[in-house]
Amino acid sequence: MSEIKKHDLVVIGAGPGGYAAAIRAAQLGLDTACVEKESRLGGTCLRVGCIPSKALLESSEKYAEACHGLAVHGVKVKGAELDLGAMMDRKDGIVTTLTDGIAGLFKANKVTHYKGTASLDGPGRVLVDGQVILADKIIIATGSSSAPLPGVETDGDIIGDSTAALAWPEVPKKLIVIGAGYIGLELGSVWSRLGSEVTMVEYLKRIVPGTDGEIARVALQLFKKQGLAFELGAKVTGARVKDGQAVVEIEGREPLIADRVLLAVGRRPHTEGLELASAGVALDERGFIKVDAHHLAAPGVWAVGDVVGGLLLAHKATEEGVAVAERLAGTAGHFDPNIIPAVCYTDPEIAGVGRTEEELKDHGVPYKKGVYIFRSNGRAMALDRVDGRVKILAHKETDRVLGVHIIGPRAGDLIAEAAAAMAFGASAEDIGRVCHAHPTLAEVVKEAALAAYDRPLHG
Fold first, then answer.
1. Cα angle 246-268-299, degrees, rounded to a multiple of 5
2. 261 HSE (CA, 13 A, CB side)
């Protein structure tokens, strides 16, 4: 029998929610341990999600620019060639650097790292491959995995999920992406830039579900111009490999045939094998862990990140993990679930925070909106990135900002200003009266704010 270990806090899962919670708790004086079954720390985000996909998005964008986008700048490139192996090596190197960095942070902050598969063994007890660990406080941060789709027979190669699509050894001539959400559009964009003929198949009659409808409509027009094909309102009933190719069946339509298929229809919480019931932890009807407003799941057990639902985003998990760790250490942890920016790293990028125009209409909230386009912005012209707009939604009576939605260059960076403004209860006029440097893309945010409460200066 192995020696029983004891810690103040045990965190199960070393993704963005888990490792952040462990580090913060250790910084605040708790004897903290973190259990991770994978050989590398960082969870899906760092290993096979956010980071590798953004590395490929950046590399593929540079390749596409070298092939098609530099002549307008007076730069002529002849015979640009793709070295997919080097591109993949660069991506893998970034992942290694960041995952090793988390291991270094664990060591620097004296977080005990257990490698193995964890499960609960009643209140205050965690089993890691037979090793008993005692802790008065436990945080579950096991994340999520790609959701399956009935009838779609994945083989991890010709028909695979996002993990497979991050490591294909060659560019597929034809690619079908099932699901036109963030993951599908990002990886579809990568392979389209590298030469694939990409068809996006989406069950809904729109793309990027959950985003503001106006922004989604603009995005669809721009992506079509880039060469992406779309089958919207399409119910996939099956997909299988036949004679070395993928066949995708769609209700009421002709089957589609491609070299590869990416299944990207969402994610599901990862709770298998955790023995949650032994500690009184319950799941909701969708399989997510039930928690209260402070992320308490059962006496002595908290849960954060994708496993509790809401927006399945790495930064949301991090903020939840830090807030819970701070509360467990006796300080005032803070997390606002209503102000979580979301970004789709296509070209142009799509970003939003707060409520959409559809949500405001559905809830009968009186609002006004200000919209300003990048095409009128000097910095956007200099970058040759003029497609898109900023949309600011403010309360009609108080002018308080309720939502900001952007499609355009560096939207993922610009949305931070909107999130900060909303966190402090800013009005559209507040944003509009802040001095923004010139020439910058951020001036488009300022002009949209001016449009929301009065009129744009350069309208």
1. 165
2. 28
Residue 125, SS3 per DSSP: strand
pTM: 0.96
Phi, psi of 184 (to 5 degrees): -60, -45
Decide: 175 and 261 in contact? Cβ < 8 Å: yes
**H or E element in which residue 62 lies:** helix 50-64
Six-digit token string for 119:
């499960």
What's the Rg (C-alpha) of the chain?
Answer: 23
Q: What domains does the chain contain, in order, with CATH numbers?
A: 5-146+269-328 (3.50.50.60), 159-265 (3.50.50.60), 348-453 (3.30.390.30)
- The residue annotated as part of the active site, out of 68, 73, 438, 458, is 438
Q: What is residue 203's DSSP assignment?
A: S
**Per-residue pLDDT tens digits for 289-340:** 999 999 999 999 999 999 999 999 999 999 999 999 999 999 999 999 999 9
In this predicted model, what pLDDT tens digit does every residue of 178-194 receive, in sequence order? 999 999 999 999 999 99
Mean pLDDT computed over 240-267:
98
How many angstroms separate the CA atoms of 112 and 22, rounded?
Answer: 9
pLDDT value at residue 117: 97
What single letter denotes the amino acid at residue 79? G
Give me the mean pLDDT over the 275-300 stretch. Answer: 98
Whats the size of the chain, residue-wise? 459
Please confirm, yes or no, whether 73 is among the known catalytic residues: no
Q: For the chain, give me the number of helices (H) and strands (E)?
A: 13, 23
- The DSSP output letter for 400 is B
d(CA 240, CA 248): 7
Rounded-to-integer distance, Cα 15 and Cα 94, Å? 16
